[in-house]
User: What shape does this take?
Amino acid sequence: MLARVTRSLHRFAEAVAALLMAVIFIAFMVQIAMRYVFNSPVGWTTEASLAAWLWLVLWGAAFVLKDDEEIRIDFIADRGGRRWRRVVGTLGALSLIVLFGMSLPASWSYVSFMKVEKSAYLGIRLDLLYSIYLMFAVAVIARSLRRLVRGPAPVPGDSSASSSAP
Assistant: This one.
């Protein structure tokens, strides 16, 4: 049951990301047509592309990427065995939890304050535009907590990480 709900939520997150990509593409095409075909450039297309790109990057990092799809610099963790990877993974997860946790009150304050500002062309309230960062920060904290509980991912080819014999 939980796996089915999780898959459905992940498919929804992917659909939102695809929609954001479509917005970027359509705005880009409209921008090209207006500038080079009709010789009448418009500014709203740039603003729509930038807003969709911001949401796409943070939405994707928060809700679409799976743990094994993230880019990590593992040259320190890979220097040792499973215990060393656990120590480095724990320190990394704790660091992310503390740093993003410390940033949340100031981020919330800034995003809340931005309700008085609107974007230049589309008139989007900037608190709505920047609210994706708050979702991203909470998702990073939640992922780090999960990584802290689960421990490091097994390394392919590492026989010490596997409990079953071949």
DSSP finds four helices and no strands in the chain.
